[in-house]
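note to self — DONT lose this again. spent like an hour looking for the file last time. sequence + predicted structure for the chain T wanted, 150 res
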Amino acid sequence: MDEEVTITLELTVGQRLKVTVTGSNPQSVVRAAKEVLDTIYVELVPPQEQQRQQGIPPSVIEKLPKMSNKEIVLTLLYFEGEMSKETINQRSRELGKEVSKEWLDKKLYTEMEGLISSVESAEGPKLYRLTVYGRQKAEEVLRSLGIALP
């Protein structure tokens, strides 16, 4: 292939930010886009939100056996961000106290009303995230368990 090919990658980040990266090497274009997105994330996302997305601290994991399904879901979404029902089930099982698929199917909406919102995902199942009120409730649960928050 002797002709020069130009690759343009356009990403929309939020409602007001569009990132366009152009180049001739696919790996370089993707690498440059990732660097730009990483920089945007570090600059724009509050430190406490970055910390939440790094996973559940060990001090919280040891308290999971004493937590209700609702408290576990609040904790998972607080520390790990948006999740599908399947991911909530899988992560809770990995952490030692499973939130059953049956509970997620039958009680997630009723017991978590106002605490979570759902987001349609183009890639697959609905994703769930905390509302502002849900975030406050998650912090209350964690404080009641003696977990220090930033």
